[in-house]
Structure formats: structure tokens, C-alpha cells
Fold these 4 entries.
Entry 1:
Amino acid sequence: MSSLTALDITTGIDAVLAAGGGISGRMTDSGGTGLSGEIFLIEDLGDYYQIHSTRTDANGNYAFTGLRSDDNYKVYFQPYGDDYATEWYNDKTNETEADTITVIAPNTTTGIDAVLADAGAISGKVTDAAGGGIAGVSVGVYDMNQNRLTNFFSSIPTDTNGEYTVSNLPAGEYKIFFSTVCYLSEWYNDKPDFNSAISISVTASNTTPNINAVLAPGGSISGRVTDAAGQPVAWLMVSASYSDTFGTRALSSTNSNGEYTLCGLGTGSYKVHFEANGELDEWYNNKPDFESADSIAVTSPNNTAGIDAVLGAEQATVTITPILMLLLQK
């Protein structure tokens, strides 16, 4: 008959939790009617941001609890529907200008309210040169008065007909960026960068229509990857960088026959990298690093073919997780 040995239990591992502070307020329209929506609380912790979210009640009231004492909170108001403009506290259009809010636990900082203005919108259609709508184009909206990297407003995809509408916009000036796979990206109206892009005026309660784009097909690079025995290497990651700047410009993977195509490239010079699981690391043409890799000329919209790679015997086996395989097939 076996016996049981009592387990040693370490006791006294206690904690006394301090009461947290809070932030509360109300989101309304100009007539004082409470609005339903999402409220986001952003806490700047220096190296990273901590984001909290909650919903308003039927009267537009909201509250955050359990907050640490800090003087660097910001609140963003996002109403449901398209009738009202989003805003940051206190009546600001972007995070950079938003007022910071101080919390001193265990107290609640009250009165962090928002009276939302009527929203404007921008609409348009994205097509190819033949006039066919391009689905899934990312339409990015930026405030023209702010740095485009720090004052990104929102992004939505075009529908199956290539049409889009960006709603909930505060009145003001905006710039629009269009980007998608295998076409050349551009700013409105057919401009190459933020500074030269044409600004678009938005007024409250109105839609600014016909902000359209005709995207040109980009150039491409294609090739085949095999092992030392001439067998195809499938599901290998292939990327292209500008020849003078290391950084992925286009990304693809080989298919079951070892073939790949990198598309959406503008006229220029590129370097191609072959990699899987961080272990296979070869640059075209059989070079060990970016600096020594051969440059490949691309003339849009043409394809530069024959950019092949032959992996050594020890590199031929590519192990890839099922999840990554699904992502590559999309």
C-alpha cells in the first residue's frame, strides 16, 4: 500500500493592491445629445504606449478605472456611424496636439468630455488604365499640416468596384495615398510623394467626391529557385530592396515549382534576397550579403525574368510552419 507525501506549500505571498485612479466624461453632439461610440485611452510610457478602450453608455457617458498615477494620458473619441467627426481631447484633430490628462490615484479625473462636430467625408474610385475598378486598394488619409508618418488619420480598402468612402473626417485639409500589390503607389492627384500631393478640402456634413486614382502596373522581377540537384524549392521567401537602400520593397514566395514573381516595382535598380526561417540567406547572384549582391534593372511595367537561385545541398530543405504557409498563400 503506497503512502502519500504532503506537499510543501509556501505561504505568505501576499499583496496589498492600491486603489487605481480613473478618467470619466461624456461624448455628445452640439445639441447635448449623448452619442454612442468607442473611447480610447492612450498612456505614453516612454518606450511604448499602453492603450485602453471602453464604450459609452446610452447617454454617451464613459469611464476608465484602475489607472496608475500619471500625467501623460490622452483620450480619443470615435463615434459609431458616419455622421460625426472623431476627435482627440480637447477638441483636437490629432494625437500630437491632443491635451494630456493627469490622473492621481485613487481619484477620478472627471469632465473629460467631447462635443463632436458634424463629419465630412471623401469618396472616389481607383481604376486601372482600362477603367476597371481595382479592389482592395489601401486608401490612406493624412493631415496635410502634419508629418505624414506621425499624423496618419485612417486607412480603408476599396470595394469590389474600386470605390471607397472615408467618413468621420473633421473639417480641414487632407492628402490621400493609394497603394496595393502589383501597381505603383501614388498620392492624389498622380503625385509621387507627400509634399507634392494635392490637398483635399473637407467641410462638415459634406462629402468631397471624385478623389479618384488611375494606378499604373508596376514592373516585376521573376525567377526560379532550385536545389543543387535541380529540384524546385517551394515556400521560400523572396524579397526585393532598392539597390542603394536595404529594406523590403516587394515580398513574395516561391510556389510548388520553385517559381516566384516580385511585382509593383517602379523603374529602378533592385537587389533580391532568398530566405526561409532565417537560415537560408543568399542574395542574387549567389552573394552572401546586400553590399555584394548583383543589382537588377527594372523598367516598369516590364518584367525582368531569369533571376534564379540554386541553393546548396545543405540549404535545399525548407521547413515552414503551417500558419506561415497559409499567410504566403493569401
Entry 2:
Amino acid sequence: MSLYLGLMSGTSMDGVDAALASFDARTTTVVGSITATYPDRLRDALRTAIAPDARLTLHEYATLNIEVGIEFARAATRLITQTKTSAQDIVAIGSHGQTLRHSPNSDLPYSIQIGDPATIAERCGITTVADFRTLDLAAGGQGAPLAPAFHSAVFRDKTKNTVVVNIGGIANITVLPAAPSDILKGFDTGPGNCLMDEWIHLHKQQGYDEGGRWAATGHLREDLLTGLMADEYIERAAPKSTGREYFNLAFLIAILDKLKLSNLAAEDVQSTLAEYTVLSIARGISQTESAPARVIVCGGGAHNDWLMQRLAASFPRAEVHSADKLNIAADAIEAVAFAWFAKQRIALEPIRLTTGSGKPRLLGAVYEPSP
């Protein structure tokens, strides 16, 4: 059995997801997965680094890159130990890294992920594949989301139209038509947990709204929801991608000020933000003209009971459930995806993305450890 290890830290920036998996023509087998939380000091440094007005010195950027690489290597080593696996049995590590800034629509498009892959390769003694976005950007693509290619390989059902919804800091969808000849579609729909996380951190000093319980105590404010949905990104045509450099606390406060709603009860804002996440996802799906019979939810949002209830209400004719039901932990999906990306790169198998870059391409740079 050939094993691959995937590493991922998303826009929620809470830690490193690691997954060990094997793949064959029909089956993805997850041997084990963990989430290794960032040390508080590093998490605070990362949150400072992604602020819209952040200005890192070259030294600060370079050392942060190495620090995150060390944390990624530690997560991989911990998973290897936990699963009682030998590093020699792992063909490669696929590391997405930690996104600091994603700017695919600037005059000179770029996307910055840190987490030095050379550090990972050397500390783990395993070939490491990283830097999956930049070739796609150079070819005119958005560079994100990447996961739809993996979703297509694993979750496509020839009997029913399926949509995979990943709710991390940012939410993205993958539309998987039952007919294999139909075109795969996938893009970022807008905020996932990021606005809710920042709002609860501001008012309760909590990292996230566990289970959506705080949002459930509030009342939906239609005036605020209308203002949020009026943002141009929601109606922008795909392919498209976004990040926390766009959807952040400053974005929310600007809208509250514009609508003269700054004195709203904090729990009402939180409830409305949850509905904004759900409604923007539903709007994204409707833009694809898809009528899903099944909606698979992955990412941290799959554990938000309030979000899951609201999603189910938005798709009354579909089966809405967490990826956990398919024996792949919802939190591990993206890490497993980058294990798969590493497998594709090592096997020299091109990947077709939904980002607008056109033909399939080999993605990722390979870092070999010292012999």
C-alpha cells in the first residue's frame, strides 16, 4: 500500500490538519488524521500578518515562513507516530501551506502560502510537494479553490447530482453532475466561518462559535443580510476566488456603519452572519444551475449545528450531511486532498482545475530531503 501524507491550514488559521491516506482506482483509505493547533503566539502573529494593512519586513516574513514549516513538520511527525507508520513507507507529503494573501485579480496576480517545504522535507525525511497554486495563476487561473479536482475523484456519484460544500474560513463549492460528460464546476462562494469567528472573538474573546449556539440565540436582521448580499463578489461570475484579505472584520464594520446598524445586538449580527454564509453558498449553487440531490459538507463548518440546520432548510429536496457519513472526517478532507495532489505530482499525472486556467497541468514543486 502506497501512503501519502497531506498537510493543510486553511483560512480559519487555527492549526494544521494532517492526514495519511492511500489511493487506488476506486477507493480512498484514510489511515489516520489529526489537527495540531498552532501555539498562541504563532496564531497571533499569523492573524496580524493577514490584516489588510499588514506590512511585514523581509525578516519577519522569512522567519514566519520557517516557523510555520516547523509546525507543519511537527504535525506530520506526530501523525506518523500516532499511526505507527514508518517514514520510509510514505511516498510523499503534499503541503498546501498557510495562505497569507490571495490576490488573483490584481494587475500582477499572486497568492502567498508560507510553511517552508524544504524544512518539512528535511525534518521528516520525506519527499515533499508544495506550491500548488502559482503555476495555475501564471496560466491565467484563479489559483483557488484547488479541492474540486479531488472532490471529483472521490465524491462523484453517477446516480445523483452532488455538491460538495467546504466551509472553512472561506466557503467553496464543487458541483459534481451525475453525468460524467458534464463540466465540473467549483469556486469560492464567499465567507464561511471567517466573519463569524472574528465577530465572536471581538465580543466574547472566543475563537469560534461552537456549534453555532451563539448565532442560534440571535434574530436574523434582513436589512443587514440584504446589505451583505449586495457585495459585488456574491454575484461575480465564476471562476472566482477570495480570502480573508477581503472578507474580514473591517469589511463587516464598514457595512454596519454604512447601514447605520452599528448598535445592533451582537448576537443578532452573529445570527445574520451565519445566514449570510448559508445564503451565499446557496446563491453560488444556483448560479451553476444545479439541482443537487446530495450536499456533502466538509471543513469546520460541518460541526456548526446551526449552519447545518440552515443549509438543510435551504435545500429541502436534497440530502444534506457531513462528509463524516462517508467515513472521511469532515475536518480531514482538505488534508487528504493534498495527499492526493502529492500522489498526482509524483505520478506525473496532470490535474484539471476549475479555476479558469484551461488544460490539465502538473501542479506542485518537489523537494527531496538530503540522502
Entry 3:
Amino acid sequence: MLHLLKARQAEYSLALFNKALIAIFHPYNYPKMKFILSLIFVCSFYLLKAQSEKAQLESLLFNLPDVQFKLHSKPEDKHLKYLLTIKQPLDHLHPEKGSFYQSAVLTHKGFARPTVMETEGYEGRLDGNEIEAMLDANNINIEHRFFGTSKPDSLQWDYLTFEQVTADLHRINQLFRTIYKSKWVSTGISRGGTLSIYYKSLYPDDVDLTVPYVAPLTTALEDKRIYHFLDTMGSPECRQKLFNVQRFLLEHEAEAVAKLRWYAKGKGITYENYNSLEEAFEYWVLEYPFSFWQMTSMTCDAIPTNKSVDDYLEHMINIRYIPLLADKYIKRWAANGYTARTQMGFYGYDLARYRKYLRHIKGENPTAAFVPKDIPLKAFDSSFTKQVSNWLDEKGNDLLYIYGSRDTWSACRVMVSNKVNSKSFLLPGADHFEARVKNMPASMKAEFAIEVKKRLGMDADLDALK
């Protein structure tokens, strides 16, 4: 009985299939038939092409020395994405001294497409960038040496120099040039943008164009251009309001710190890198004007004036800087503090207005580059950044700098020499996060696209940024 039932089901299914075939191939349905067959052919063609390209790319990646890869994209994703692990020497001049594994992310658009090197100043990211989008380019996002997972088993700080960091980038460039033979561009944001400038200066032939975003070029441990910016940014009334918040909180330090202690406990953060929570609090207050202009688009009307400790603290916390002073973040970004204190330079706090209100910060103007106490520091040496600055003035061609006029770091922006063809784009009123091509005024955006085409011979699709 069961066999009979299965046989009848099979006969019924076959009859339905035959009926469908007759319907499709009936003379009256020739146009539909042609459309369906064409659609099947086109889909099959692109599927086979995609599978062929994937196989070709993976074969090429497999043959790259010291490169491991893992497919990260899903079948439904538009582009192939791979997580890369690249073996790098600790010392590029002496490979025998050991190695570490550097993380990167490859997004593949096509072998004939241009390629963007996205130089991170911190950990790597999976997201794309504006240059990649505008050029429909391949993208290699490269995590910075000694950040994230790109660390040796034992952190040997003598090997954290920008000569070594840029040599990492050069090696990656040379490896992947065997796969991607079209134009090459480097780009980065903030500290990653500064790294793209360093990289261009030491290996000018690696890329055809460099686009650094909001990238300061400091040449001193206490870059005093920051002080001038903070003393002139906004109206005198606005600057006074900022100072009033600082003064009030310092005058009510005991009450404010008592509240901050509970806040820190609730967030699970500690401040043991300082001599006391009170000292950390004073650094936080000193940082306030820098972060107000850099990290927010707040207007001066948003600054509280009611002399309430709670309201002032809430306002400061909304700027979101206090957690960045905590131990876990100082440890997480130790490489940033280390390079700032030894080679890159940074900014400090001018204590002239604050000395009589400070109880726990003593001595001369302190640096804002915090480093875990257990890391040995060399004396600061400005020779590298001065060498870069001189090169930019004399030979720094094919860089398109992007800055925001409100961003505190724009005080240390590169001033383009008339000896080179590079350009700088200063977005009016933009902070550190708003200074992007998509936010440029229309005329500036058009000029930027023209400059890109001059250097690459291809159009920048500005509509891709919408």
C-alpha cells in the first residue's frame, strides 16, 4: 500500500513538471521563455565569474609569503572580505631578532580596481572608508603595530618606532602589489592620518596619493600651538564660560570627586595610574576645553552656568572623556602614549590660569600623553617629526589634507608649502568627526574630486558617499 502511494505521488509530481514545461515552451510563451533563459544565463555567468575570482584571489593569497587569510564575508555579501595575519619582523633591519603577527582586513572589489591602504593609528576596523567608496577600490585596513592583536608575546618597546611602523606598511604594500597592479592610495584618520603622512614621507613611491584626515603633525612633546587655539577659539564670552566650569569644579573638588567615585564604581573603571582619584579629576578638568572643541559639536549655549556640581559633571561626562583617562584605556592605548612621549610629540596643559585652583597636580605644565607607570620611557626625540616636516615642505607632493576648523587638532595641521602640489581642505565649523568629504561645502567637494582625478586619472564618485 505504501509503495502504491509513493508511486502515485511520483506520477503526480512528474505530471506537474511536464505541465510546467509545456506552459513555458508553448509558442505563445516564447518571449517569457527567452527572458527566463536569459536571466538564468546571466545569473549563472556572474555566479561562475564570482566563484572563479574568489578561487583566483585565494590562490594568490595562499602564495604570498608570511600571509595567512580567513574568509570573513558571507555568500550574500557584495564583496569578498578576508581577515589577514601578516608575519612582520620586530626589527626590519635585523629580522633575526624576532617577529610578531600584524592583523589586517582585505576588502576585494576587483583585480583591476585601485587599492587603498587604510593606516590605523590604533586597532583595526572592519568598516570601509570614504576613499574606498569614492573610487570603488580594494581596501586593506592595517592595524597599528603594538595595538589590538598586533603584538608580540612580550612587548619590547624599543621596537615601537615610526621607522619600524612605516616599514610594516611598506612590506604590506610590496606583498600586495603582486596582486593589485592599478593605482594605490593611502588614507587614515586622526593618529592613523598622521601615520599616513609619515609613511608617505619615508616611502613616497609606494602610493600615488595620500589623504590624511584630521591628522596633526606635532613636533614637540608640548606643542604650544594648542594653547593659542584654545585662547582664540570661539568668542571671549564662550571661552569664559568654559573656564567658569573648570574653576567651579576645582573649587568644589571634594564634592565632585565624591560623586565621581560612585560613577567610576558603577562603570567598573579605576584610576590607579594616578597618585589619587583627585589628581585624575584635575586632569579631566584641564582636558575639558580641548575635548569640547575637538570631540563635540556643542554650541556655547550648551555650557551650563547654574553653578550646580551635578549639572556641570553631567555636562562633562556627556563629552565622554573621563573614561578615556581610566587605567584600562591608558593600558589599552599604551603604544599611543609611548610614541607620543618618545618620538611623535603631543600637547600639554598650560597651568598659568589654574595653579591656584589645583591641589594635586604640581610642577610644570604636564603632558596629556599618559603612559602606564610600568613602561620604561626614553627621552623625547623630535628629530623624526622635524625630518618629516622638512620633507613635506620640500618634497611632500600628492597629499590632500582634510581638517575641521573647530577641531583642536587643527592647530597642529600641516601648512602646505608653495613648493609642492599638495592641497589642504579646512571644513568650516567641523569637529574631529565631522571633517569628512561628504560634509564639505559643494564647491570644496568639487575641488577635492578634481584634485583626486589629477593624481589618479579617475573620477571620484561623490554620490557614493550619500
Entry 4:
Amino acid sequence: MHRLLNMVLLAIVAVGLIVSCSGKPIPVLKVVDTENNRLVVLAGERTKPVNFYDADFVILGGGLGGIAAALSICSAGRTVILVEESDRIAGCFTYQDTSVYSENRFVETSGTSRSYQEFRENIRQWYKDNDQTPPSFFPRRFPGMKDFAGDNFCFETEAALDVIDEMLAKNIERGKLTVISRHKVAKVVTFSTRIASLHAVDMDSLVCNQITGWMIVDATRNGYILPLSGIDYVCGMESARDTGEPHAADSPDSLFSGHYLYCSYAPPSEDGGDYQECFVGEMQQGVPRDTTGVVMVPLGPRPRRIVSKKRIVEQDISAESNPGPRAAFFRDSVGIGYHPIVLPPRMAPPGKEIIRTKPFQIPLGALIPRRFTNYIAGGRTIGATFVASRAYNAPSVEWQIGEAAGEVAAYCAGYGIFTHEVLESPEHVRGLQDWLVTKRGVPIYWYDDLTPYDPEFNSAQMKPFDESGYHESMTTLHFRQK
């Protein structure tokens, strides 16, 4: 039962007020500690921050997107606080587990950035240095799709954690990166269209700490900070009427799978109780009930996605809607990716779960919410429909999103501006793209015959954005067309 809970408990965070016997409201902070299956409740004086952390930027989530964002920002000489709810960096990797990445065949040539290729090569080198053999390949996941037949990247958690620790270590030693583990945000303070500060609960010491930064990169896996901050978001599948997508549902799909686990706890006393254990004893289906002293934990949550300046839809990336060699062209591209859309079996007709795509781009507008100006999506909270987001969740794409988010943050800091100002200025978009390509080796346009180390890489990558009609003239993925 406990193992099941570790897999499915949503890290619910809430801030609210309860009323004491004297009638005075008592502030409350609540977070679910998913690693230990308990509800942590701080009340009264305990909701006041004990420690204060401040840096140029705050990254939420230590998954692939968060790691890539941290490397990007630190490379620009800025300071970063990375908040991770597990007890280690790279919380996306489970102890004593084996990760299998099904990537496209271009992932180590033209299809990803220098930093992601370095991550993969460092893992291979780890096995050589430790005289170990990497895990075996797994069967082809996408039969009949030749672009995904040749790369099945397997590694064990120990290798990934060692490699990531080493990649981040120099930034920690230089004081550029501070990792705060076992923390989860319970309250977000906003001012106008900006996030001013975060109140996070230390789930080990049971205190509240305040974290501030000029800009926030959200690399969480479920976007739990969005409802806390008031950033507009969507969750679940949109309707076909809304998106026009061939594979969307006829009507919007529900937020969760429909099953809820109910956790009962004793409301804290006026002098501030610490926490109550939160082990689940009941599972029901239907509309969740609102009961004092009950926390409703949904089973099978789907990531929240921002309502962004640009919403990516299935038609932007599917092979069916894009007859050329590439997906739709985004003039504000800050990265690239390539992976099929893989729908959950219950959300697609039998045999239709996998939707072919064309090599696609990551538009800057999809990382920026409509209203808030110092928040950037750094992973799965990207502004895409449920259908389209299933392609953007691939490991190499998540890394590229996080890397782009980090570079956007650093670019904004360099000019003393916010995200909307970059997006709305063609000159700034062009400057950001030039920085990504020339300084970081990040491809923003698709070729299959150029790597980030190629002498022609910089000019070739910028060509589609500098020359009118160039994209339309490209009939293959080759830069050197025959």
C-alpha cells in the first residue's frame, strides 16, 4: 500500500486559515510529503519563515528540465536556488532503478544541444570508469518508425546521479548554485503580474522558509505552483471543439482519473501543531467531498500546463498536418525536439495511441504565461494542449525546454527586462536565438546533417530566421541539399 502511495500521491499544497476556539483565524500551511506518506501541517507561529534564501533565480524541480536550467543560468554567471522535494537532486530518478530513454536517431548528432549530448556521453563514460556494463537495450517501442529504432539509452540511477552531481558540483563550489532539498512550496506571494516570494516547508525540520528570486523557472512535473500563484493553467484533455485536434476528445476530459484517496488529519491547535501522519484508508470514485480535516489526494494526476502566449496544438507537430520534412515553423524558436505523441490507451481508439510527428521546434511563446512576467515554464508545464504535450514530455525535449528557460532568464537579467518584453521584441528574440546558437550550441532549426560542433552550425541555424522564404525552400532535412 505504501509503495502504491509513493507512486500516485499528488503533492498537494495549500495555504489557508482555520478558526480557533476563540474565533481568531489561524494561518495554516499544508504539504503532502510523498516520500514518507504523511501530511505536514504547520499552523500559527510555525507558518512564519525561519530561514531566508535569495538568489538571482529560483528553479522549482530537480528533474531533467531543472538540471538543464541550472546549468544554463550558472554558465551565465548568475546565482540559482534549486528547490527539490526529494532528498537528492534529480528526484526524477528513483533509487535502485533503471531508466530507459527511447529517443530519436538524431539525438547525438543534430537533434539536441551540446549539453544534453554531454550528459549522455558522461553516463557512458561512467560505466567505463567503473568497469561496469550498461543495462541492455529494450525492444523497439515504436514499430515501423525508423527514426526511433536505433537509440535505446539505458542506465541505472547510480550512474545518472553521479554524473549529474559532477556536472553541478563546480557551480555549487563557486557559490552559484544552492540546492534546497526536502522542501515544497506551500505559499506564493505575488505582486501585480509577478511572483514576489515563495514560502516552502522543510519536511524534515518542519519549519517554513522563504525563498526569493528575480525570476522563477518551473521545472516541476505537475505544475503544482500554478494554482498557488494564480497563473492561468489547464489540466486534462481539451475538447476537439476548442483545439480542432483530430485526436482530442469530443468533450473536455476530467482533471484526474476519477478516483480519490481521503486522508484524515486533526486540525492543528492554536499554539501550532507540527503535523499529522497521513496514511490513506479509503478510496472512492466520483466528485471529491469537501470536509474539514480531510485532504483529497487524486490518483493519476496529469500535469498542469500554463495558458501561454502561444499554445502548441497537435496540428503544429503531427506528420498528418505537416507534409514537408519539418513541423510548423516558429519564428521565435528556442530549441527543437522530435518524439511521437503517445496517448494513454483509454484516451485513444485501439491501435491509435501513437501519433507520428515531424521534427518540431520549441516556441518561446509556449514558455511564457499570458499574464505573469517573471515565470518561465521549464519542462512539463509548457503551454501545449494535452495531445501535443505528450510529444514534449520526452527526456531530450524536456532538457531542451529547461535549457531554453534558463537562457531566457539569464538573457532577461542581462537587459533588466521581463519575459513579455523579450517575446514582444523581434530584436530581443533574435538576440536570444543568437546567444543560444553561438554560445550554448543549442539548435533552434532542424537539420539532419549538422551537429553543434560543425563549423557551419551557427550560420546554418540562423539562416531560416534571417532570410525570408528560406524555410519554405527547404524540401529535406539536409542543410546541404542535393
